Amino acid sequence: MTIFLPKERAFRFLTKLWTLFILVAIVFLVLNPKFLSPEYLKSMFTGYGNYLWPMYIFILVARVPLVFPPTPVLFLGFLLFPNLKVLIVLLVLFSTLLSAAFFYFFAGHSGLSEYFHRNYPKQTAKIELMLSKPRAVWFVIIWSLTPIAPIDLLCVIAGVVRLPFRYLIIGMIIGQLPILFAYAYLGHLFFL
Asked: Are the C-beta atoms of residues 56 and 77 closer than 8 Å to each other?
């Protein structure tokens, strides 16, 4: 028997389920920090031999619906393929753009757009007006350049307020490339 839930209830349920998943993962990693050590990660993945590249590509794609941030996957790539930093940066950028498309269109089909337009019409209209102009690319660039700003949230907001998709993608490419290359060539000073 199939049960159909209204979009808002389904979205709330999935949000709670995802939040629970993230909390369990955080508790697990706090109790078992060895799983985050570079040595452990490298030893775990190098056992895949010829399947290392397909495994890494799978992780890049799977992180999108799991709302997993790209930065740890980027550093994992640097750990596994230290001589291929430019390729890793480009693959992570592609993954980030894939994520952008997923969340941009998810916001439009999930009922989020209708929810915000119905419950917060003035605020939504104001943001929509601001982000409907070409200068919206600058907002996306600045957001993308900020290492602590969740890029997937930006994509959901862009989908809710119907920011033209091309502005989102152009802004993300311009904003993400410098930070990804900075991680590639300066990240070892802090993380690796």
From this structure: yes
Tokens of 64: 């999108």
The string of pLDDT tens digits covering residues 126-158 is 777 777 777 888 888 888 888 777 777 778 788
* Residue 76 per-residue DSSP state: H
User: CA dist 62 to 66, 94, 119, 149, Å?
Assistant: 7, 13, 33, 21
User: Under a CB-based contact definition with an 8 Å cutoff, are residues 140 and 112 in contact?
Assistant: no
Rounded Cα distance, 80 and 47, in Å: 11
What is the domain partition of the chain in residue ranges? 7-21+37-189
Residue 27 φ/ψ, nearest 5 degrees: -60, -45
Distance CA 115, CA 133 (A): 23
Q: Residue 42 contacts by C-beta under 8 Å, 6 or more apart in sequence? A: 79, 80
CA atoms of 192 and 187, how far apart (whole Å): 7
CA dist., res. 192 & res. 189, Å (int): 7
pTM over 0.90: no
